Amino acid sequence: MDTLETRELRYFVAVAEELHFSRAAERLGIAQPPLSRAIQQLERRLGVTLLERDRRGVALTGAGQVLLDEARAILDGAAAAARRTRRAASTTTKLVLATKAGANHELLQRLLDAHTAEVGAVGAVEIEVLLCGMGDQARMLRDGRADVALMQRPFDALAGFDTEDLLTEQQVAVLPAGHPLAARTSLTMADIAAVPDLPVARWPRQDGIYEPGPGPEIHDLSQLAQLIALGHTSAVICASSRSWLWSSHVAVPLTDAPHVTTVLAWAAHSRSRAVAGLVRTAAGLVRTGARL
């Protein structure tokens, strides 16, 4: 039988992530014996070995890794369905918009103002802005914590979402104000790479892993801002994201960095009238040439 229950998937994910039955049982709030039996029953039903067990511990098999990836997606989808269902039944009309903290502040404000002005005569849908970390917007859309999100192409993973392009712009290098390069009117990526005392800061990828490199690993904008001011790093960001810069920072245009397009993204299967209304507002602004 190919039917999988969410309970046994939760059990399996806990064991697969902990790679330890006792810790997984503690995380789930159950005893270890029934957890072990549940995993064994799951393996028998599927006819595969999901976990290799020996005296050294527990390890995922190839089949186990596949099920872990699929189970996470299924459990996220179930949680998202529950959140969206509760929101649909709510008597309070609210739209949750996720955006990376510190990014595109002016663009976001203009979009919100335009939406309020467009629907204000009949009562504006309340929009809750959910500030998040790098790459979190996609997860929030998929698990139902957000209805729409501001995301950036080519940096964010947009597969599975519908999008409306809002703004395409160049990138800038952010440098400490006292650095010789800060006096330049423009720079190239090669100019930045040739300065060993200012390695470009590294943000995590969508999977949370940092690419190798000399620059410091960055977790939030406050950390980045201080490290730049201290002369320990530089950053490459969208021109419209300069609102968080300090007086001790200088932003210099990059002539050869790829342009970045900010998009409004939402789940492809969404039937929310509130989402459709915000998308219409965004599309109208772009279509009429209004400056976002």
Offer a few descriptive terms:
292 residues, alpha+beta, Arc Repressor Mutant, subunit A, D-Maltodextrin-Binding Protein, domain 2, 3 domains, 5-stranded mixed beta sheet, 3-stranded antiparallel beta sheet, flat, WH_DNA-bd_sf, DNA-binding transcription factor activity, DNA binding
- Please identify the top-level CATH class of the largest domain: Alpha Beta
Shape: flat
Cα separation of the termini = 54 Å
What value does the average pLDDT take? 87
Count the E strands. Answer: 10
Question: Helical content, roughly?
Answer: 25-40%
As for the number of domains, it is 3
Percent strand equals: 15-25%
The CATH superfamily of the largest domain is identified as Periplasmic binding protein-like II
Biggest pleated-sheet summary: 5 strands, mixed
Order of adjacent strands in the largest pleated sheet = 4-3-5-10-6
Could you tell me the radius of gyration in angstroms? 23 Å
Question: Could you name the ranges where pLDDT drops below 50 across 5 or more consecutive residues?
Answer: none
How many H/I helical runs?
9
CATH architecture verdict of the largest domain: 3-Layer(aba) Sandwich
CATH domain fold name of the largest domain: D-Maltodextrin-Binding Protein, domain 2
Order of helix and strand elements from N to C terminus:
HHHEEHEHEHEEEHHEEEH
Based on secondary structure, the structural category is alpha+beta
